[in-house]
Design a protein that fits this description.
Layout: E1 9-12, H1 18-29, E2 33-38, H2 41-54, E3 60-64, H3 70-80, E4 88-91, H4 106-134, E5 137-142, H5 155-175, E6 180-187, H6 193-198, H7 201-210, H8 219-230, E7 241-244
Parallel strand pairs: 1-2, 1-4, 2-3, 4-5, 5-6, 6-7
Helix pairs in contact: 1-8, 3-4, 4-5
């Protein structure tokens, strides 16, 4: 059995770093047309310029979209509405700021919920209409083990990811009659830029020692699961939250 995405259009948010960057690479290798987002205007401009110079990758387009900003989100939605097909939607963009609940700034609550939960909802509202018209779709929302368990200083982040899991379950029921499958993937600890920014080296070593498989994930570990759920090989999995954590939540 071979997985290919020829003639499929795949949307990936947060595609310039970490898991999203790996996904973009993997989907491209498997033949997909790509719609990708990132938050840094200069970086997006350079990526699109590089693609134009190559001349062989006209099936890839980067958009600058800051989902903490309503105007930026709505501008991106306008661009999405121009597409006749979006076969796969991966809501990967996310932010995290840590603080105890009694110190948490309300601005952190607004920003994290806007990026991690509101933006996926707004995107799915429009993308699902495109998928309905075509009678096909695969949606994968990237949640987190902290949507299932939590730890100190993660009240806002856990709220956003728990909400995303709930959104996915409900959306799966709404979309099932139209051959659209919606699932969550909840990574554990993955060695990405965000992880290295949030955790100290000591915390990384401590967490690694507590993971049954004896290592943190790399982006490829998560990408493989997302690729399967997004593919035509997945014909019956919907409304699920797949935890990919090396066994951490079972300890």
């Amino acid at each position: 059995m071979e997985i290919r995405f020829n003639n499929k259009t795949v949307l990936i948010t947060g595609a310039t770093r970490g898991i999203g960057k790996q996904l973009a690479h993997d989907f491209e290798r498997l033949g997909a047309n790509l719609v990708l987002t990132g938050t840094r205007p200069e970086e997006i401009e350079k990526l699109n310029e590089a693609l134009e110079k190559e001349g062989t990758k006209q099936n890839i387009k980067y958009y600058c979209a800051d989902f903490s900003n309503e105007g930026s989100l709505l501008d991106f939605i306008k661009e999405l509405r121009k597409y006749e097909r979006i076969d796969v939607c991966v809501n990967n963009a996310a932010i995290n700021r840590i603080s105890y609940i009694y110190d948490a700034p309300f601005t952190d609550w607004e920003d994290i919920l806007n990026v991690n939960l509101r933006a996926p909802f707004v995107i799915l509202r429009d993308v699902s209409q495109i998928m309905k018209r075509n009678g096909y779709g695969r949606i994968v929302n990237i949640a987190s083990i902290f949507g299932v368990i939590s730890k100190e200083k993660r009240a806002i982040y856990s709220s956003s990811k728990s909400g995303l899991i709930g959104l996915t379950r409900a959306a799966a029921l709404d979309l099932a009659p139209y051959n659209i499958l919606a699932n969550c993937v909840s990574p554990g600890f993955v060695l990405t830029e965000l992880t290295k920014k949030i955790l100290t080296e000591t915390e990384i070593k401590d967490l690694t020692a507590r993971i049954p498989l004896g290592r943190m994930a790399v982006p490829e570990d998560i990408s493989k699961v997302i690729i399967f759920l997004s593919s035509e090989l997945n014909t019956y999995i919907t409304g699920q939250n797949i935890i990919v954590d090396g066994g951490y939540v079972n300890v």
